[in-house]
Specification:
alpha+beta; 5-stranded antiparallel β-sheet; elongated
């Protein structure tokens, strides 16, 4: 779970961003189509908000609905607005365009008609961007881990203990990391999974970048946590000495 935290976060954020983008696009197309249809045969009218009600949906959520009243062809009409915002108040005038063929069909004038799209679009970009960033970070981290496993210089570091990393949490629980040392170097692992087992005093395999000993990775998949009797010799000039 902890090892795939960036993949999990990236997938969730990107999925939410994609969903919000699809909803925003759908609302945009519906609003644009509806506006064009009504605007072809409509008349401008000034309506007034006469009531704002609050109701409970089937899911238990609270929903506010604003009702407007307007006059068209010497008749008074009373209808709900499709959208509601916290800035609405009773007595507030609303400019609408009323369909001449069906006066109960109307569209609102100004920015309020596009308010859902204006709200959802930045949210879609924000969540989608964060998700893409997390996924790219996970891919780069995985690629770097694979490179170190293939070309890193192996050492067997002494396991000193475990620490909690509160910067990474899942369900309120901090991630657990392993701390090991080799000569004067100290290594801190990525968040551990249940299958990453080692005990204090044992040795775990660490692969270090040949040119930068600040770049390293733990090899928990080698199935050998104890130092071999003859560790592999370091070839060539190394920063580890």
């Amino acid at each position: 779970m902890f090892k795939k935290i960036w993949l999990l976060l990236g997938s969730i954020f990107f999925g939410v961003g994609l969903l919000l983008g699809v909803v925003a696009a759908g609302i945009f197309l519906f609003t644009a189509t509806n506006r064009n249809r009504i605007m072809n045969d409509s008349a401008p009218v000034t309506a007034v908000i006469v009531d704002i009600t609050r109701s409970t949906t089937r899911d238990g959520d609270m929903r506010n609905t604003a009702y407007i009243e307007y006059e068209f062809d010497d008749e008074i009409y009373f209808a709900p607005l499709r959208w509601w915002s916290s800035g609405m108040r009773v007595g507030q005038p609303i400019e609408i365009y009323v369909n001449r063929q069906d006066p109960y069909q109307f569209i609102t004038d100004g920015i309020i008609a596009w308010l859902p799209v204006i709200i959802l679009s930045p949210m879609a970009l924000l969540f989608g961007g964060l998700g893409a960033g997390f996924l790219i970070y996970h891919a780069c981290k995985k690629k770097r881990h694979r490179w170190l496993l293939d070309f890193g210089t192996p050492v067997w570091a002494n396991v000193e203990g475990f620490e909690e990393n509160w910067r990474i949490q899942v369900n309120g629980r901090p991630a657990t990391v392993l701390v090991a040392s080799y000569n004067n170097m100290r290594f801190v692992s990525s968040p551990l999974d249940n299958n990453d087992r080692a005990h204090i005093g044992e040795h775990v395999k660490v692969l270090i970048h040949p040119e930068d000993n600040n770049k390293y990775t733990f090899d928990f998949a080698n199935e050998s946590y104890l130092m071999p009797s003859e560790p592999p010799a370091l070839s060539g000039k190394s920063l580890l000495q």
